[in-house]
């Protein structure tokens, strides 16, 4: 401004720095412009929801200090930026950690590349199409590990004698009675014919109906431990379905929200598990309120035979749970029910933390009231004969399988 007001030679001299800067920028652009191309993505075929996977990127003609930024879709999360490392032939590679937070098929449409020019005067920010497709599926890590299979087989069919004696047990074979065996197992008529003591050997009944019922209403979209409740429920549902298939039972499934959505009659073996896994992978996230009266009445009508029904659901307070309790009571007259709910660790931590101010005290009172009302609902259901599984997300699967094995051992179905 001073040079412009002064005029004459001073004005002409003031133009020189700008000219030099323009020349430097043009020279820097000529030296530095090397547009990367041929971006390739290497992604795993599937990522289990709640787990983290590594995505590998490679690019040709990569400049120095090349970085990439991502616009992650709703079902994926990860670091916003990653640095490329030089490889042979002008190629650069990078790895980025990606966490799956929603089921579905997600596309990473494009990637922003960033690098600075040789003289640090310019920064290039082009956008390259990625077109990477990442499939997020229900978590069956426990099934793949063999842990559930080992637990069920060792419990139900292990080296230890497994004689489920009582109403509903199946006859397996006759054997000679030896000291130490239960005298109640003696078949007196056959013993009289043979003139030697013969005992009946029984085994636990198989081919029971096990139905996984998933509430997919808006309350199940609440996030706990970084995932929606419905995803924690799906993981536990697949685990109990696999355990039931290994235990020789028939597995079916049912989903509902504002109305019944899907129902599959109980079927045997691992085919039923594969069908259930495919169905849960396609289960959408909805924002509709659950109609327990319509949904559970429909389920009761579709299951005339006594079954073990595992209900995954949620409620807010005693008032909102009233219709749920009434319909669970109707189901419990004919079927054996496991009622599964997922605790919120943050809510429990809030109760255990002393408040620092009035807002903290108000939050503490609200959390205490919520936990108290939740306990009242679960106690009412327990008095109806419903088996309650109420645990944190990381413990829900183990508790559920343990409950199933106990029911099988006690011949309650």
From TrEMBL:
InterPro entries: DUF58, vWFA_dom_sf. Pfam families: DUF58 (PF01882). Keywords: Membrane, Transmembrane, Transmembrane helix. Coiled coil: none annotated. The chain crosses the membrane at residues 15-33. Residues 174-352 form the DUF58 domain. The keyword Transmembrane applies. This is Uncharacterized protein (DUF58 family).
